[in-house]
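Worked example 2:
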Amino acid sequence: MMIHMPELPEVETIRRGLERHLPGRRIRRAEVRAPQLIARPDWESFVVALAGQSFGSPRRVGKLLLLELDSGTLMVHLGMTGRLVFQDPSNGSEEGRGLSTPHTHIVLHHADGTRLCYSDVRKFGRWRLYAHHEVPSCPELAALGPDPLTSGFALESFESAIRRTTRQIKAVLLDQSVVAGLGNIYVDETLHRCGLRPGRRANKLSVREIRRLFEAIPVVLEEALENRGTTFSDYRDAEGQRGQNASALRVYGRHGQPCPGCGQKLRRTTVAGRTSSWCAECQR
């Protein structure tokens, strides 16, 4: 079974789900069962600070969820296996009644009886609490490049970042300081979509190839968003449902199978330390 870190489409799908449920709800009590998941401040201060806070509209930058509160921002990184699920015990469903799995490590109990539950099998996720004024300059956001679904994603700066490195193009696209939100799935899918091999040297791409790559990134992400993200194992949306995008993937995880473009058997290589699936005929 494949395990992959939630990427931009998965995190944005969760954000959209939380947008329907969280704004206006007040936290009665924060329960932390795995203190190591709280990166800022210490977990005891975290619990005290959250009590009585009400949610505003959640935001997202790259793979980071920003849950707005009255006097601060909860920054959540889901790691490899994190799930953030809203539960309403009054709705009678299994997702609504239960606390997800034995791996549920953080529960925000709301004043109206609903709750926000975070489970994480591998415990690689991290939660941070910042005051509002600290967020724009915090190191997690300062390290990120532009989000490809925002107006800040511009061809000129993207081309400049590509041209100034000799790294393989897949490694560049995985670099969150170049483009925020891409991971192994959507890099492979984007490179196939625009006909580029993952091992191509970035500074050797032509102007036309860079433009094609730039234009393909948001298209691939938007299509995955329409399918509510990709589930192989752990990922679930804010209602606890699986994403439906796995069946729409063209190359990721399909090595040895026919390329949907030309029918040739897809290849598998390792690029930037990550397994890469690609087509020797369609990708140049």
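The chain has two domains: 8-142, 155-278. Residues 207-226 form the longest helix (20 residues).
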